[in-house]
Amino acid sequence: xxxxxxxxxxxxxxxxxxxxxxxxxxxxxxxxxxxxxxxxxxxxxxxxxxxxxxxxxxxxxxxxxxxxxxxxxxxxxxxxxxxxxxxxxxxxxxxxxxxxxxxxxxxxxxxxxxxxxxxxxxxxxxxxxxxxxxxxxxxxxxxxxxxxxxxxxxxxxxxxxxxxxxxxxxxxxxxxxxxxxxxxxxxxxxxxxxxxxxxxxxxxxxxxxxxxxxxxxxxxxxxxxxxxxxxxxxxxxxxxxxxxxxxxxxxxxxxxxxxxxxxxxxxxxxxxxxxxxxxxxxxxxxxxxxxxx
Length: 293
What we know:
Order of helices and strands: HHHHHHHHEHHEHEHEHHH
Strand order of the largest sheet: 1-2-3-4
Helix content: 55-70%
């Protein structure tokens, strides 16, 4: 469960709140927003103070915490206090300001920001889910990869890389072709769907078609409790810890999912063993003929 990850992974509480905010009721979202905005102060605030700040009742604060998967406000409060201390330590060496007129300063600060948050990106990844995903990818008869919008390049990339390690994959770009191919899968096949929001209509329809065919559905996304994760056999959630659902749609960062794909390919390569080594050698032979001196 996600709360178990939140308890064991530093940064997991913030990531859990952000990933589940889209599924909360409006009054619960107001409470969650206070928890995020004042996370460093939560240790000093009781549930009534949080309720007052959110314009809600104390009962709503407790219900929000339970909707997020925690036992109650006190448990979430302790874990938020722990994570607040971790984030403060991690950000200790980060610059306090960026010069907007200096492009190099902005680029450098962006790298520092990613470095400071990278350790929290896998906070919602379950070890069991990762293991099941890699085993499913290794043993499936047929692998269909789907990604649309800004996730489309990631789908093409992982399909090509899977093929190069001896795990043939197909990644059609036409949405109708995706859905038709998905519907023609069988119980021995798998569809891997990449969607940052977990709500892309075309991608969700392909996942539903594969599910109807009896195929396994693997999801790579940034949010829990989305239309995609509801369909998924296994969900792999990687997210920027300070990215909201609105920002995921408007800023469309796919960096956590890109890093996760790197890691999944590496894990699958080890799982496939000698066959992957042989396939990579043959792929390099093919590539060498297309490189200029």
